[in-house]
DNA sequence: ACTTGATCATAC
DNA sequence: GTATGATCAAGT
């Protein structure tokens, strides 16, 4: 947290200069740049590897683009959705819960120029009872759709907090799955995301705790 | 304006 | 190919 606090208020340009890294003109071809930069600034040693960013602490680090009032602009990637011969399990042992058990949110404030975007106040979050219940309900519904092979329902319009979305390099990427009729069909890979509205509520709640 | 579906780079 | 890091941009 000391390292995270030390990043707060700094611009991405400052962090990059300190690490000797170039700043791209924009993120169109560097979508993970800011996330990787902040991880390096935090001294995350495991970046690029599987598992939590801070394995000893079980903490996942996520940058989140926000406006001047701390409201997120984007949904948040969670993890790949298991769509190939998937056996549904309880929320408690789900990959989504494992990923979200402890998240260090690093807000990145808007700016006209990428290098001028500033890091906001870091937030170490664990889902509270209400959030956990919302996530669990979404998990139960979505994992059932996945397990039943209802491929036509594998779209982004389900879920209050969690949603299913395509996750691939290209729209024509395909994987084989067994559909509801037991037939092998092809579909694109999916992933779990947190809706912007959910993350917005999380950050607002945490902000109130910091600033009652 | 906002959401859904599509996309980009890199490591292993 | 799958995982990491996400944002872009078409669709509604």
Q: Count of DSSP helices? A: 6
Shape: globular
Number of domains: 1
Low-confidence stretches: none
C-alpha termini separation: 20 Å
The counted number of beta strands is 8
- CATH architecture assignment: 3-Layer(aba) Sandwich
Helical percentage: 25-40%
Strand content: 15-25%
* H-E string: HHHEEHEEHEEEEH
Rg for CA atoms: 18 Å
CATH fold topology: ECO RV Endonuclease, Chain A
CATH superfamily, please?
A: DNA mismatch repair MutH/Restriction endonuclease, type II
Secondary structure class reads: alpha+beta
CATH class: Alpha Beta
Strand order of the largest sheet: 1-3-4
Arithmetic mean pLDDT = 93
Profile the largest sheet: 3 strands, mixed
Plain-language structure description:
- The chain has 212 residues and is an alpha+beta fold.
- It has one domain (2-204): ECO RV Endonuclease, Chain A, CATH 3.40.600.
- It has helices spanning 2-7, 12-19, 33-42, 95-100, 129-147, 196-210, and strands at residues 60-66, 76-80, 103-109, 123-125, 162-166, 175-178, 184-187, 190-194.
- α2 crosses α3.
- The mean pLDDT is 93.
- It binds a DNA duplex (12 and 12 nucleotides) through α3, β1, β2 and β5.
